[in-house]
Amino acid sequence: MSSWHAAQVVRTEPLAASARVLTLAVPGFAGALAGQHVDVRLTAPDGYQAVRSYSLARVGRDEVVELAVDEVRGGEVSPYLVHEARPGDRMEVRGPLGGYFVWRPHDGGAVQLVAGGSGIVPLAAMARARAAAPTSDAPFRLLAAVRTPADAFFAKELDSTEGLTTTWLYSREAPPASTRPPGRLTLDDVTAHAFAPDVGARVYVCGPTGFVEAAAALLVDAGHDAARIRTERFGGV
Amino acid sequence: MAVFTRGFGGRRPDSERPVPPGQYLTDDFPVLSIGPTPNVDTSTWQLTIRTEEGAEHRWDWAALQALPAEDVTVDIHCVTRWSKQDTHWRGVPVDAFFADVETAAEYVVAHSFGGYTTNLPLDDLLDGRAWVVTEYEGEPLEPLHGGPVRLLVPHLYLWKSAKWLRALTLHLDDEPGFWEQNGYHLYGDPWSEQRYG
Fold first, then answer.
1. Are A123 and A206 a contacting pair, CB within 8 Å?
2. Inter-residue contact A60 to A104 (CB < 8 Å)
3. What range defines the domain where residue B99 resides?
4. Residue B146: is its pLDDT beyond 60?
């Protein structure tokens, strides 16, 4: 776990205006659990290095790392990964990391995913792992909050993933057919679309700090057991 | 041999002071917590120290306020690679809580409301190197950052500075806490880059 692996970009795909998927070939990377992340290290020509953590967007393939990176404006690493990196470019990867915010195919029971913005990435990895595990009949629901339809990562796929029911909630601009006015996540959204507390679902919440704070508090208000809610926050306040 | 990344320039820290290896400086204050932020009310808050013999020492909010607090300016380092320089806190040195505690134990587990735990050597909490803090940047510590009361152990990665502190238990052996059981280092010295176990 603690050693760096040489990695090479093999593919990049646009994901949203400020985000893209990067597929890296990483010899020696032995796979990961859905929800885990990796450290990515970039080295400038003078030897200066920068490291950031990124959630894996998909797990299950050895020696392949798939990231979905959202640009942090003014950031040091994400603008490079989103705009500059191209196939053949080299970097290093360490991981997988994190043993708590994970879903394992043999984990039984219902799963409620709650995403804010690019926080959907590790949750998409869980939904994909669920779909790829034919033995799992765990029902999954995803409540995904995004600014506009253009910010919805993996929308087409997640709308048709086996075993998963996805609800998109828009904070700034909703599609014309939407009956819910754009706005922040509310208690009504949670009670209307998330599993009821008595289902006893495991809940995974990921997103920017402010979103996760609000969403986790709403879930607790709605009656979910705080001990069953796992959170991953990013960004400052 | 270094793996160079074509087209990557990077941004050098403009601080005169060194940061620990693999860290970058940030001006905001990221939040990493394993679950919902617990609501901890100062009217019912208590801190308990329990020795390896089972003896308990307790402080409520009023007793905490009666202890001599000091202002602390320190750099903090999160294992997720951000560091923040010159953060200002106010709190009571952990030494004050151990003045009347008799123990032969060398290890401590800090316990949070919400169920989080983290382990530290007792020595790392003493000699003015750790505080029980209630203020950040001149304001009462926000729940988001561990308020009303958190531990501050700035010479170790910040996961050791348990938020929503409710108890310190003493142990003869080093017993891994939450992150220490989930892949992170038992001790967590940022200058030696002790991130992962």
1. yes
2. no
3. 14-30+45-192
4. yes
Measuring CA to CA, how many Å separate B18 from each of A48, B21, B87?
A: 14, 9, 16
Q: B65 touching A, CB under 8 A?
A: no
Q: Considering the domain boundaries, does residue B78 fall inside one?
A: yes
Comparing CA positions, the residue from A26, A28, A23 lying closest to residue A57 is A23
Residue B43 burial (CB count, 10 A): 7
Take residue A167 and report the two structure tokens written for it.
């609800």
Answer yes or no: is B6 within a domain.
no
Within A17-100, strands assigned E span: 19-25, 37-43, 49-58, 64-70, 90-97
Domain presence at residue B103: yes
Question: And the tokens for A58?
Answer: 């998909």
ipTM of the complex: 0.89
Q: CB-based contact (8 Å) between B1 and chain A?
A: no
Q: State the total domains in chain B.
A: 1
- B chain contacts of residue A92, beta-carbon cutoff 8 Å: 3
CATH number (domain holding residue B116): 3.90.420.10
Nearest one of A90, A28, A80, A38 to A59, comparing CA atoms? A38
Span B54-86, pLDDT tens digits: 999 999 999 999 999 999 999 999 999 999 999
Size of interface A-B (CB pairs under 8 A): 114
What is the pLDDT, as a whole number, of residue A2? 61
Q: Searching chain B, which residue's CA lies closest to the CA of residue A92?
A: B3
In the 8-state DSSP scheme, what is residue B38?
Answer: P
Whether residue A35 has pLDDT greater than 60: yes
A149-199 confidence digits (pLDDT tens): 999 999 999 999 989 999 999 999 999 999 999 999 999 999 999 999 999
Listing DSSP states for B45-94 in one string gives -EEEEE-TT--EEEEEHHHHHHS--EEEEEEEE-TTSEEEEEEEEEEEET
How far is the alpha carbon of B4 from chain A, nearest alpha carbon, in Å?
Answer: 5
Q: What is the mean pLDDT of chain A?
A: 95
Q: Does a structural domain hold residue B130?
A: yes
> By CA distance, what is A45's nearest residue in B?
B4
**Which tens digits make up the pLDDT trace of A211-222?**
999 999 999 999
Contacts of B69 by beta carbon, 8 Å cutoff, 6+ apart: B90, B91, B92, B134
**Residue A24 is encoded by which pair of tokens?**
């890296």
